[in-house]
Amino acid sequence: MRLLKELMRVATQHRAFYCYVLLSVWIFLLIAGMYRYMGNVESTPGGGSVFGPSSSGTASSLGGDSSPSSTAQRFAKYRERCAPLAQLQRLDDGGILEGWKLQGVLLVIRHGDRGPISHVRSAGVNCGVSGGSDNLVNRYRSFLYNSSSSASGSNHMYLNKVGPFHGFPLLPATERGCPLGQLTYKGISQLLHVGDIMHQVYAHPLGLMLKPNPNRASVETTPHTLLNSDEVVVFTTRYRRTFQSALAMLFTLLPADKWLALNVRESHSMAFCFGECSCPQSALLRKRLEAMGDKQLLKRGDVLDVMQWIGGTILQHTPNGISNPFEVVDALLTVLCHDATLPCRRKKALSTLKPIRKNSNQELVDVINIDQDETAANLMQEAQTQVEPDSPEVENGNPSVQADEAQEGCVEPSHVDTLMSFADELSQRSAGHSYYKLSGLLRSYGMIRHIVSYMLKMISGDRTKFVLYSGHDCTMQYLTAALGIITSQGQTIAYASRLAFEVYRSEAHTDYYFRVVYNGKDVTQQIDFCEGGKSLRVTRDSRGNKADLCPIENIIRFLHEDYFSPLNATNFKEACGAVNPPKTGEF
């Protein structure tokens, strides 16, 4: 009894405290219930059309989960073409093989991340590196800012060497911007990381860290040094993005004095054809391949609708309508590659849009223009002209654009899935078609000849150890198609992609071989003249990993004897002058 009385007394004294606790718990439960109710209301799908407002009314819905992590997971496959840094890794890249000496490397790269090729609504999109956290970017930028000329006081922000690239900027104009067709700071970061991988793999086996001449006095690190290193040869097209990509990659590959001594040479063609360029047959093959793609697009009404919706939302100016899915994909990548929110638009009237046809008489040739791009979208647009709505071309398989009244709403993840999956499917079908390989053979003939000539120099004791071709996606499309290299992405080439030709000499028999590595993966066995028993399998490292080496004479024989066999010709002139391409089926 005494204990019970004591408990009642304590409870009476703290009655107010218990009331406050109970009241707080009740208020907390009430607020939690209200938030849950509001969340359920917002996530309930609306009953509007597919291209109407997003279910939240202000931002894109992601089904049950709209968190940034779920967005990244859903679009991870599409972002592979953006080349996130985690994707840039050292895998099967060689450098040191047991019993073999690395004689030289020829590396073909695509430039890094760039702004779109068409004017897009990119407000709020950050194309830079987050928070200055990339140490390689900080080191590169600091080097360029701090290394100044003792003679004039100028810095390295512009190339001051005499030549075709005199006055070219070495860095993008803005840190966060997405300038039209220009390299971004994210692109600089990608190539610096690629160069760092190449440094780990090739710098020491090739002796690139050694001084060019030990007896020479120390090198003055000025932007207009007259040193000429023949160990490293650099070719790039006359585009800022390829020029800046080349120098960024070489900065992390080479010592500072060799980087300053570089002489950059110009390629007048995106195919690096070096004289073997004009080829009407190649243009005809590409046009027929594009016509097949147009037919596939016409069969997909859902893709056409999505293409109009996304294009009308993202693209700023479309006076000739929207008929090219790759142009819309390129604009969409500005959003996807930089983790931006899917865009929305307000209701406004659209004028009647005219269909577009391609001028079959205009040859698709490489025209060097700093603000021009290499993408399939651009190559298709080069040969487009307007026709009236009642033109027979509209009925003969060319995508046409219907007049539409734009709705208010947002680009939804489902729209992205529809367009990007179609683009991936078309890319795969195109890459598997015979016209793709035949066109690649014709367009890359000059480049393959150039590569083989440098291979012969490397095995004959020439000082050249590293050759870089800084190009575009079409550069690598032509080359991989000609060699028969097939990737999981079809004809899609990711930013900062690399294709390496590694040349080796046997320490036992003094025989010369080479291997081909695409984005870190050994693809030597995919090449027709290297597959199966035509190559030599050797041990790559102490863990027992293997590497395939192809004899140098195989590629020489291919170039001189078998190259034009698929085209029923014996030389470049004959193959390019054929009246009609070989007949083949559709996709």
UniProtKB/TrEMBL annotation:
It catalyses: a phosphate monoester + H2O = an alcohol + phosphate; 3-O-[beta-D-GlcA-(1->3)-beta-D-Gal-(1->3)-beta-D-Gal-(1->4)-beta-D-2-O-P-Xyl]-L-seryl-[protein] + H2O = 3-O-(beta-D-GlcA-(1->3)-beta-D-Gal-(1->3)-beta-D-Gal-(1->4)-beta-D-Xyl)-L-seryl-[protein] + phosphate. GO terms for molecular function: acid phosphatase activity. GO terms for cellular component: Golgi apparatus. SUPFAM superfamilies: Phosphoglycerate mutase-like. GO terms for biological process: chondroitin sulfate proteoglycan biosynthetic process; glycosaminoglycan biosynthetic process. The chain crosses the membrane at residues 16-35. Residues 52-71 are annotated as: Disordered. InterPro entries: Acid_Pase_AS, His_Pase_clade-2, His_PPase_superfam, Histidine_acid_phosphatase. Gene3D superfamilies: Phosphoglycerate mutase-like. It comes from the Eukaryota. Residues 52-70 have a biased composition (Low complexity). Keywords: Hydrolase, Membrane, Transmembrane, Transmembrane helix. Belongs to the histidine acid phosphatase family. This is 2-phosphoxylose phosphatase 1. The gene is Dsec\GM18257.
